[in-house]
Predict the 3D structure of the following.
Amino acid sequence: MSGQTRTIKVGTLARVEGEGALHIKLRGEQVTDVKLSIYEPPRFFEAFLRGRHYSEVPDITARICGICPIAYQMSAIHAIERALGVRVDPAVRLLRRLFYCGEWIESHALHVYMLHAPDFLGYEDAIQMAGNHRALVEQALRLKKIGNRLVQLLGGREIHPISAKVGGFYKNPAPRDLKALADDLKWALDASLQTVKVVSGFEFPEFEQDYEFVALSHADEYPLNEGRLISNRGLNLDAAEYEDHFIEQHVKHSNALHSIIRGRGSYLVGPLARFNLNFDQLPQVAREAANAAGLTPPVQNPFRSIIVRAVELVFACAEALRIVGEYEPPQQARVEPVARAGVGQAITEAPRGILYHRYALDDDGRIVAAKIVPPTSQNQKRIEDDLREFAAQVVAWPVDEAQWKCEQAIRNYDPCISCATHFLRLKIERE
Amino acid sequence: MNSKGQKPRLGVFKFASCDGCQLSLLDAEDELLAVAGQIDIAYFPEASRAMRKGPYDIALVEGSITTHHDAERIQQIRSQAKTLITIGACATAGGIQALRNWQNVNDFIRVVYATPQFISTLNLSTPIGEHVPVDFELRGCPINKYQLIELITATLAGRKPNIPTYSVCLECKRRSNVCVAVAQGTACLGPVTQAGCGALCPAFDRGCFGCYGPMESPNTGSLSDQLRALGRNDAEIARDFRSFNAWAWQFRRASEEAERL
């Protein structure tokens, strides 16, 4: 076998959002090259945002991703508010946090159960899985629906919601409508705790990596909308300093730009990074669930990210329940900003990891320049690095199984390729 | 059942888009397992790694055509599909990425990418209907999942789907919204935009911004006059028509008229 040229191909990587391909080259037992290609066609958001008024930006950037539109709205709104010097009512801040919890619940429930669990249980998809695990899939759908209900209530609809704006919300929810969600959220919290138990019983490959984890960190809370950007290797910076430390590289095999830390290389964003860097900020119920599942930071096996995602589901449900219980409508429904020239940057925690936006505005409040760095383009190089290591483990396996396992390794990252260029075709070539 | 006595086969295909419209199928939480019981979801890469070859009884197509490769791929899909349905503003009108159609795409590439020669793209972002015959165009950015289920059900039953082509104004009245244009002087595209969202924006105290594209025979000239009377200038009116359905000809004409003034 050694020295022989072999090719393993997977036509299309599934259960990810967007279009991409994976190419692994092997010589004997040696992995010689790994390329994660994103062939999702580019859509040029940063270019056509130029000349638009700042008030139009959150509705436009939402269209980058149908899975996490709220993340795009939140990073855009925070960056523009910074450029305009807008400060919002604390109740608005809380509502934004609640809105984001809705997206986390929906997105994590989708990924844990519908996109990732079928790999661990050996099914092609969740619908096939429902044949033997109907109760599990029904639980997933109900959980997902509760996240969507929350988004709908605050934002009008689950995909591309319409209520968030620079300065607040077009309309604030009535307290009684929010309180009416409490029973559903209590069910969702129990279901999430159940989810942690179920997924922690899955089998995980032995695979630990030495990652640089990058996530927001906030003194008082588990990070969503605000915080310093930190890493386990000493980064500690404000959003305004992001571009001094992170650079984007344009590589030939991908329509998504690769992000690296200047002078160091790949890094990891998303649930593992947040959990490892912010464990103490999780509510007690989530910390206990994590401990019972055998998770203590640092978790360095990316396959275990499914458990961490489930722990974050517990967090998001508990946090939503807290906010719903405390909610008092803002004194000032929204702030009407005054246009002025300026630059603003913001980072928020999308379900898949940090999302950076920067906007420069002119005197009339129109966009002069925009920069958007989605979580999947930040993880892209790290996914390649994981696969370079992991492919060596599965090289002797039957082709079909090796392919499937490599796909699973990619899905560890819940990649959203529509965002990053915004699909995955897997090809393993042996030379 | 189809003519071979099998469950009808469904394929879901993606072109340039945000994935949101196909996600609507997974967002139909109460209906998904029932739908999956009635039809064979043969190809749906966002949800399943089982990707089975055509032919398909129904092909749902999301996204617009922006590359040579995609222009060829849609021809193959059409030849495999008994009924081809486009879902959403990208597939039906070119999407937000059609904003490039008024610019030089090479300038756009240089704004976003360091090495422009790595990028292969067409000058225009075009709807599926400009490339192949389409059996039904479902509007919306995003689509309404209940309209999608109605459309699939109607197609399988061989009847006309109940999907209205009147304006958002009718939904607004039915919902008893106060008219934001009349009462608050808010710019609103409701009078020229097709219904489907349930008049969401006016219910949230904001003007409609045209997610469902032009209604049947919209009077865009009259609306432009109204927007001007509310204090919008021509550049703003051009931008109002130029969003997710910018390349739909009625909106395109209205934005170009405003731009010429």
Q: What stands out?
A: Chain B touches chain A through 64 residues (CB under 8 Å).
